[in-house]
Amino acid sequence: MSNKKKHSSPINQVLTQMVLDVFEQNGNTPLNYKQVSAKLNIRDPEAKYTILDILKEEAFKQTLKEVSPGKFQLLELKTFIEGKVDLTNDGSAFIVTDDEDESDIFVAPRKLRNALNGDRVRVYVYAISKGKRKEGEVIEILQRAKMEFTGIVKLSERFAFFIPDDRKMMHDIFIPMSGLNGAKNGIKAVAEITDWPAQAKNPIGRIKHILGTQGENDTEMNAILAEYGFPLSFPAEVEHDAEAIPATITPQEIAKRRDFRKVTTFTIDPFDAKDFDDALSFKTLENGNYEVGVHIADVSHYIIPDSPLDKEAFERGTSVYLVDRVIPMLPERLSNGLCSLRPNEDKFCFSAVFELDEEAHIVNEWFGKTVIHSNRRFTYEEVQEVIETKQGDFTNEILKLNELAYILRDRKFKNGAISFETTEVKFKLDEKGKPIGVYIKERKDAHKLIEDFMLLANRKVADFVNNKGKGKQKYTFVYRAHDSPKPESLANFAQFAARFGYRINTKSDKETAKSLNFLMEDVEGKKEQNVLTQLAIRSMAKAIYTTKTSSHYGLAFDHYTHFTSPIRRYPDVMVHRLLQHYLNGGQSVSAEHYEKLCLYCSQMEKKAADAERASVKYKQAEYLKDQVGTVYSGIISGVTEWGMYVEIIENKCEGMIRLRDISDDFYTLDEKNYAIIGQRKKKVYQLGDEVQIRVKNVDLAKKQIDFSLVQDN
Predict the structure, then answer these.
(1) Contact between 106 and 125 (Cβ < 8 Å)
(2) 3-state secondary structure string, 160-203?
(3) Is 505 a domain residue?
(4) For residue 26, what is the domain's CATH number?
(5) Please, what is the Cα angle at 363 between 362 and 368, to 5 degrees?
(6) Distance from first CA to last CA of the chain, Å, rounded?
């Protein structure tokens, strides 16, 4: 029997680890096989030779080195590292450390010590040599990522198990009968882990909330919110806090503000919007220039720092937009009432007011508290009609604002901003929330008009604070930063885009932006638009909140912040408070404290985006549930070692074709070329290729859609 064969057995794996531990425990002193055997209290001569085999094998694997004939030593001492658990489908994990230059540490399932996906852990890293994968074991769970899970209750006579929805939660939760909280068999619920004894295979928990019957729209949407840690309602204390806020607009408060109530002002929002957090005012000045006011709901006027309302808003971090509902950051009395800039009502705002000339150059700017009176509530569609027909309410104002917005937009792109026009899919729902149709949301001039003036306000507020101090005297602020992409990510994208005939010039940021914009313009309306746009976005860095005064690569702005949506984003509330503090002559605040707040807000933003994606995936699965057997044309949108993702051209629903289901050959992944290749016939399926698919299976619980490939005979 060879050494390799012996050492692959579980017993020898354990013995190998015990041998390596001996070196650790003895300060990595060089030892021979007899000394190691003595340390392990092994006297059997044959077993001693097994130890010698292990030492030689580990030296061959470069875990140990032979420092003198017959004497061995660890190549490198074990170290302790902290990081986050990233669980794989087979139950093993990679520990992602805080150091970007540090490679991930592999942990086998049996060495996870009950650590769950996302947990922060301390890991014992085994001795490694150059070029080898780092491996280790969890020795301590520092912080659980989550203790609550959504899933299904399975009842027996004396106990129950809870089967989590989360595919990365590998353990069912044991529920004692006393912890059922009235839950019946098969019901969808939220369970909380209460204990996990050291030797127990499964954690112990209790049912915290009953969500309802599996498959019902409200149940599934609430399950998505619970899964990502968003509360389903506001605590009574928070609602009471909101109700107690006086609604009166007092003359004393008006006197402290710049009065815009006689200036033409209107809001432009989606037709189904209820919270209007921004308005535009427009006035032609005597010198021929234009005064444009970007008026933002003065949320910070109503929310007292550290009040129950403020703490709840911070905890949520953001409003969450699921397919069929909005889960607001603030209670309805504020989001749809006091703070909403409804027409024909006096409202308090925090405003950025600009004097612009005919070329949209800023002649003057002013930031401060205002009172406004919106004359009209427009939908995007109504403003678009005014732009196209040149008729309707406030035609002159809208046309001039659109003209100025065009100039601002062109200037932005000339300076190196990148235009990513992604396809946004919307569902037509029946009264029960079931999708009965799919349509693509179009972005027209009306949307871009609002966007360009919001970008202007965000940029100029950031510039204003950034310019207040120099060097170490810089004022701490909440910026929205976006790093330039890593060269290798950009190079990979450029290589792929070249397959479609698009050339990406990566010589400089400006040249990159120019060629990306040309690509985005050229690809619009073509079948590969979504694939190329998504891949381009994936090659970019992610935008984050930070106190560091870094630039925004995607917008080509030196400084940028989020000032314009405080009803739905907590960072904007922080920005309003800091801006007012500095306008009042206040000193700079703690950068360290605000950096922690920024990190949390970035994390909540990501959670909200994940929840929104999950609701879209669920509705896509629900929509295709009745289409099993239907054939569609699709574009290959992703490739992995186990299958390829295909996005249906007609409705943008995405599913997977598993490689094992493609019967004409044995296919493997060519990662470098984003392709799947048949090993015998060399047929290639590449990212962006058009294929015919049949809807094979839909699993609503897993939000999973399976396709089969319709192949030519």
Answers:
(1) no
(2) EEEEECCCCCCCCEEEEHHHCCCCCCCCEEEEEEEECCCCCCCC
(3) no
(4) 1.10.10.10
(5) 80
(6) 50
In the sheet with 684-686, reading across from the earlier edge strand, the strands are 667-670, 675-678, 684-686
Distance CA(308)–CA(315), nearest Å, equals 10
Instruction: Count CB neighbours of 655 within 10 A.
Output: 25
Domain assignment of residue 318, yes or no? yes
Collapsed DSSP state (helix, strand, coil) of residue 692: strand
For residues 127 and 153, membership in a common domain is answered with no
The residue behind tokens 């910070």 is 300
Tell me the whole-structure pTM to 2 decimals. 0.83
Neighbour-count burial of 701, counting CB atoms closer than 10 A to its CB (0-12 exposed, 13-18 middle, 19+ buried)? middle
Query: What is the DSSP-derived secondary structure letter of residue 220?
Result: H
Q: Are 474 and 467 in contact (CB under 8 A)?
A: no
Name the nearest CA neighbour of 519 among 500, 543, 495, 539: 500
Q: Judge whether residue 204 has pLDDT over 50.
A: yes
Q: What is the rounded distance in angstroms from the CA atom of residue 309 to the CA atom of residue 235?
A: 9
The answer for residues whose C-beta is within 8 angstroms of residue 461's C-beta and 6 or more apart is 352, 367, 561, 563, 575, 579
Helix (H, G, I), strand (E, B) or coil at 669: strand
How far from chain centre, in Å, is Cα 591? Answer: 24
Q: Which domain holds residue 7?
A: 3-74
Residue 705 and residue 577 in one domain: no
Structure tokens at 195: 């204990």
SS3 363: strand
- Full DSSP string of 517-556: HHHHHHHTTSTTHHHHHHHHHHHSPPPEEESS---BTTTT
Please tell me whether residues 91 and 220 are part of one structural domain: no
Query: Is residue 521 in some structural domain?
Result: no
Residue where a domain terminates, one of 143, 167, 188: 143
Total domains in the fold of the chain? 5
548 and 648 both lie in a single domain: no
Work out the average pLDDT over 144-164.
92
Least confident of 130-144, 320-334, 526-540, 567-581: 526-540
CA distance 234 to 557: 37
The residue with tokens 């749809």 is: 336
Residue 519 reports pLDDT greater than 90: no
Is pLDDT of 326 > 80?
yes
Residue 532 is assigned to a structural domain of this protein: no
Looking at the fold, whether 154 and 103 belong to one and the same domain comes out as: no
611, 228 in Cβ contact below 8 A? yes
44 contacts: CB under 8 Å, gap ≥ 6: none
Measured from the Cβ of residue 250, the count of other Cβ atoms closer than 10 Å reads 9
Q: Which of 595, 612, 698, 686 is nearest to 656 (CA)?
A: 698
For Cα atoms 597, 601, 605, give the angle at the middle one, nearest 5 degrees: 175
Question: What's the mean pLDDT in 364-382?
Answer: 97
pLDDT of 7 higher than 50: no
CATH of the domain at 661: 2.40.50.140
Residue 515's contacts (CB-CB under 8 Å, 6 or more residues apart) are 502, 503, 504, 505
What pLDDT digit, counting tens, does each position of 391-414 carry? 999 999 999 999 999 999 999 988
Same domain, 604 and 699: no
Backbone angles phi, psi at 97, to 5 degrees: -85, 170
Find how far residue 513's CA is from the centre of its chain: 24
- Which residues does residue 707 pair with via DSSP β-bridges, in sequence order? 657, 695
Give yes or no: residues 266 and 368 share one domain. Answer: yes
| Domain edge (last residue) among 38, 59, 74 | 74
Instruction: Report the pLDDT value the prediction gives residue 440, as an integer from 0 to 100.
Output: 79
| Same domain assignment for residues 159 and 138 | no
DSSP letters for 53-90: HHHHHHHHTTSEEEEETTEEEESS--EEEEEEEEE-TT
427 vs 147: CA distance, rounded Å: 33
